[in-house]
Design goal:
The protein is mainly α and 116 residues long. The protein is 81% helix and 0% strand.
Length: 116
Amino acid sequence: MIHAALLLGDTLVFATTTIMWAFVVFHAYSTRWEATAAGRALFSISLVSSLLLTLGCVRILVGSHPAVTVSRAVLYILALTVLLNLLRLYIRTQCTARQQGAADGAARPNKRRPGT
């Protein structure tokens, strides 16, 4: 039973990695992702996710190795940097939207309903 679960998990990691890389390639060649900050952020987080998934596949295939350990540290530093940049973009976008709303003199209606 445990062997079947490990095999299923490994298969799902490889399948997810393949789909993620397909997304990165299609996104890179079919959109102008570099034209906007949001496009660059989506591409960056997709690429880093693909690299981390690929590292997971490498660990499944070769096990623990010093090169895998170093790559893991580097990729997680890169992931942290990309995620912090994404958070910065989100905060900046929200602040800009609020400032524009205040400058227009229009209050944004609260679309949330109580209890949701």
